[in-house]
């Protein structure tokens, strides 16, 4: 009887393992700006993120399929108060099918129908690159792009970025499906300490 139970347990575990492999194999990542020439660096000024510099109005797209978590359609930033939660201006964050949060800000526009709870697919237009929030005075428009672990909706500090995204951006730009899940999980564990 014990042998039969062990065989069943091993079989169930094997099925779970192969299901997770096929789910990961189906994950498609895309570069978050399409249709325009871009530049970006490996570093950001004071926390893990990347500013993707490009032309005003270029399309910001979902880097993965997932569900919209936060949307900011109003630019509430003021240089007088410089409140952290307003620095991003117009922005969208999604929780990808991989469980990771992806965030883009300083948008000039958020697409109609992009609202919390809406399902999006990889490559779907979320908005357009701009200079809202604390980027208002910067001459070159850019997309502030952050990758982080999940927190509660409205948590502006973590959504800005918890891991350095440049190597994932490089891979996605080259058409590779490099996943940030392991790095994000490490960052989440470190944040809990």
Give a structural overview.
- By secondary structure, this protein is of the alpha+beta class.
- Helix content is 25%, strand content 24%.
- The chain is built from 4 helices and 9 strands.
- The protein has helices at 2-25, 156-159, 166-173, 181-192; strands spanning 33-34, 50-53, 59-61, 66-72, 90-96, 101-110, 119-120, 125-129, 142-148.
Short structural summary:
The chain has 193 residues and is α+β, with helices and mostly antiparallel strands.
Number of domains: 1
CATH homology superfamily name: Glucose Permease (Domain IIA)
Q: Give the name of the CATH architecture.
A: Distorted Sandwich
Structural class: alpha+beta
Helix/strand order: HEEEEEEEEEHHH
The biggest beta sheet, please? 9 strands, antiparallel
> Looking at CATH, which topology would you report?
Glucose Permease (Domain IIA)
Topology (elements, then pairings):
Layout: H1 2-25, E1 33-34, E2 50-53, E3 59-61, E4 66-72, E5 90-96, E6 101-110, E7 119-120, E8 125-129, E9 142-148, H2 156-159, H3 166-173, H4 181-192
Antiparallel strand pairs: 1-3, 2-9, 3-8, 4-5, 4-7, 5-6, 6-8, 6-9
What keywords describe this structure?
193 residues; alpha+beta; Glucose Permease (Domain IIA); 4 helices; globular
